[in-house]
C-alpha cells in the first residue's frame, strides 16, 4: 500500500492529538500535585474546567503549528467554540 498525502495528513493529525493528550496528562498531574488537589473534589473539577481544558486547547494549537496543521485545527476549534453558548449575563 502506498502512502498518499491523505494518509500522511491523517497520521499527522492523530499524532498531534496523541502528543496533546500525553502532554495534558503530564501537565495536569503537575498542576494538581502542586495545588494539593484530591481527585474529583469540587475544587479539582473547577481547576480542571477553567485551567486544564484551556491548556489542552493551547497545546493542541501549538503541536498543530509544529506539525504544519495549524489551519486545520484552528478551523475545527472555531467551529467547536461557535457552538458553545457563552451567555452568562443575559
Describe it for me?
There is one protein chain. The chain is mainly α and 90 residues long. It has one domain. It is 77% helix and 0% strand. It has helices at 5-35, 42-66, 70-82. The longest helix has 31 residues, at 5-35. The protein is globular. The mean pLDDT is 91.
Give a brief description:
77% of the residues lie in helices and 0% in strands. With 90 residues, the chain is an all-alpha fold. The longest helix has 31 residues, at 5-35.
Task: Write the topology of this structure.
Blueprint (H helix, E strand, L loop, with lengths): L4 H31 L6 H25 L3 H13 L8
Helix pairs in contact: 1-2, 2-3
Query: Gap between N and C termini, in Å?
Result: 56 Å
**Count the strands?**
0
The portion of residues forming beta strands comes to under 5%
Q: Mean pLDDT across all residues, rounded?
A: 91
Tell me the number of structural domains: 1
List keywords for this structure.
single chain; 3 helices
Amino acid at each position: 500500500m502506498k502512502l498518499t498525502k491523505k494518509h500522511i495528513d491523517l497520521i499527522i493529525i492523530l499524532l498531534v492529538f496523541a502528543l496533546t493528550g500525553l502532554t495534558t496528562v503530564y501537565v495536569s498531574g503537575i498542576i494538581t500535585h502542586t495545588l494539593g488537589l484530591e481527585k474529583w473534589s469540587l475544587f479539582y473539577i473547577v481547576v480542571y474546567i477553567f485551567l486544564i481544558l484551556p491548556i489542552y486547547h493551547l497545546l493542541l494549537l501549538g503541536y498543530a503549528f509544529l506539525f504544519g496543521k495549524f489551519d486545520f485545527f484552528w478551523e475545527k476549534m472555531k467551529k467547536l467554540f461557535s457552538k458553545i453558548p457563552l451567555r452568562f449575563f443575559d
